[in-house]
Structures are given as C-alpha cells and as structure tokens.
Amino acid sequence: MVKINVINLYKKIIENYWNNKSFVLFKKPYEKKIYFFSQEEKSKKENNFFLIVSFNRNYTIRIYTKKIYSINIENPKKMDNFIFPLQNSGSSLLIYSKKYKNLIENAIETIKKNRDFEKVVLSRCIKIPFQNFYLKKTFQKLIYSYPNAFVTLWYDFNYGFWIGASPELLVKCNEKKLKTVALAGTIWGNHRWTKKEVEEHNIVIKYFVNFFKKFSGNLCVEKTRILNIGHLHHLETPISFSFLEKPNYFKILDEISPTPSICGFPKNNSLDYIRKYEGYQRNFYTGYFGPVYDGGSRIELYLNLRCAKIKMDKKEIVLYAGSGITKDSEANKEYAETENKFKNILSKFIFD
Description:
CATH class: Alpha Beta
Radius of gyration: 20 Å
Shape: globular
Largest sheet: 18 strands, mixed
Number of strands: 18
Order of helices and strands: EHEEEEHEHEEEEHEEEHEHEEEEH
CATH architecture: 4-Layer Sandwich
Strand content: 35-45%
C-alpha cells in the first residue's frame, strides 16, 4: 500500500485517461480511505487487481495494478466548498414509462399463476442529458452522503466511465471464511415494512442457506437489520460460512451469482424472464466488482447497484434501477421504488 496526496492522485487519473488505460477509485463501506488501482502495465502478472464483471458475464475487466495507492479522506466539513447542490434533479427528469409499468404488472400475474416462480427482479434505465458534469465533485459527494456504501468511479477505454454507490456486498473471502449479505426488501419515506418485503427478503436468505448445504463447514445467519442508504431503507441479513477446507472462491462465485436479490428465484426462471421481457442490456449494472488481492487469497466483491454510465462524448448519463417482483407486489409501489432509487443516486450528481 502506497500513500499518495490528492495532487499526485489527480495526475495519475489524468495520465491514465489520456493514455486509454483503465483505472478505478473506490471507497469501502465505513472506511475513511480511498483506494486507486491503475492499469500501469499491459502485463497481467500482478497479483492484485480490480475485477469487474457484467450481469450476463459476457464482459470481464481486470485492472491489474503494480501498486495499490491510498489516500485518507479529509473531514467532510473541509469539502463543503467543493460540493454544490444538483441544479436539475427534479421529478421532471424521470419520464413516466408505461412500458415498465406494464412489465411489472405482467410479471405479477405470471408469478401468481406459477407456483414454481417466486420472484423476478425487473429493471430499467433512463437517460439524462447534461452540458457540464463534474465527476470529481460527484464522487466526493457520494462518499460523504453514503459512508456505508461501496463508492466507485472506474474507467475503461472500451466501456467508458461508471460511477455509483452500492449498498450490497456479494462476497468477502479470506482463507476459509466467506461473508455475504441477504439484501432485499426496500421502503422509503413514511412507508412501513409489509409482508411483501419480508418474504422477498426471506427468499434471498433461503437461497444462501440452501447453497451452502453442499459444503462442509459451519453456517451462521445473523439477525436481520435495517440498512439505511440516504432516504432508502433495506432489509439486510449478514451471512457467513466457515469451510473445513479452503475452496476455490472463483468457482463458488460462478455458482452463487446471480443471487435472487438481482435476478430472482428460481434462478433459471427469473433469468429467462429477464432475457425475454426486460427489453434492454443491463451491461455492468447488477454485475459485480471489487478488489482481489494476492491472486485470489482475499476477495471483496460488491453488486454494481445505484450506478450510472457517463457518456462523455454524447453528454449523456444512463441511470439504472430495479425492483423485486413477487405475487404480493403492487405495481405502483414497485414502479415508485425504481424512481426513488434513481433519485437516490441522481440527487448527488453535480452539474453546472
């Protein structure tokens, strides 16, 4: 780990961008430190890299780094002069989508008619035009607005800029121990938890419990708690598994993903439904990403949620959001959930 100051970090980011080299800035939940991985060489002999995998697994990026740079985060009060409120984040930007509303309604009816189909996560994207958008200031605001999220800004020549603040850990692996979370069920404002959110959440817990039954070791399912990310509230249950023998974590990753929190349950039914009816490519949204150390001895991966793709050439931002649909879903409420997820990230974007 190499400490770096803000000026030198900024120089490295600019250098990478102009040389078409991949890089990533990220902050782990509850940490007051920013990490920087820089694709300094074309050689892939380095043991440490940042892994980025798309939802359909068609695209994989590995940002191999020779050195891991870090910088301690300053007191948020010192950053106030660099943070400005979003000028144009009103509801007028969120154009009503009858197509998505119909998609939700049809999914609810399909699940009600099929006892073997419990949940499907359906998503959509919206496109926001801009004149001037400040990546650095937006990244700063996301860090201080969502200290319990995995905040990222990454760039790849083939896929452009992506930025986001994800609330959901996929896996954290070290030696013989794996940690994950069941994160499903969302409310906001004055809404109260209902049977729908609780049962949607329990589907994810059940999935993980059944998954680990085929391994030898000890399973621990902790008490469900509430995770607050801005004005959104999620049900979260930490789950850990201690293996008797250290497994191949990349193999486990292939088997465990995608989880019901981002596709549904059963997995094959929900994936088929998404491919057939969702109507667009998620790309890296609901994929996973995070640092991999020592060739895979330590892994910390998160789901790519509350994210946006920044198209600098087209002066356009693509935002993504989804909702978990079950037999108890209400179409209007599920639709409103995606609007609130859009606002959760868009409200922190800095425009001129």
